[in-house]
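Lab notebook: predicted structure, single chain.

Context: the supervisor wants predicted structures on file for every construct in the current expression panel, including those that have not yet been purified. This is the next one on the list. No modifications to the sequence; it matches the entry in the shared construct table.
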Amino acid sequence: MNRGFFRAGHLPTLVAAFLYFDVSFMVWAILGPLGIFVAKDLHLTPAQKGLMVATPVLAGAVLRIVAGVLADYLKPRLTAIMMQTIVIAGLAAYWAFSVASFETTLALGIVLGVAGASFAVALPLASYWYPAEHQGTALGVAGAGNSGTVLAALFAPSLAAALG
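Prediction complete. Output recorded below exactly as produced.
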């Protein structure tokens, strides 16, 4: 990466796109690492556990189309703010009222899918500020935010075991 890259675009926006992507992917993937705990607490069958883990992935894939259209229409920044608001409000509601059944777990999975749709917003947010010769680097930096999936898998089970 040459020094011209840092002068060519807007580094704070690139960092924000990375962090948005990283945190969103942590949230999106959280049911996978916590699946054992949730399945035990709710007495889920293996098929139900599989559907629970698959729901955020499927919802995220479908919602990426919606997020992409919104990012084109409303611009990535406003779309990201709206999507984060939906995710935060949804998680707060589930925290306040708890997840007590398989059905509510699936509904939570759809909310988590909104976080998974961040892919369609974070990358345009980053690339918008960089000229064509630096967009690959900018997209690579922002796209590295998918490391949130790994962070969720590494830390969520031990946090769940420690905090209940």
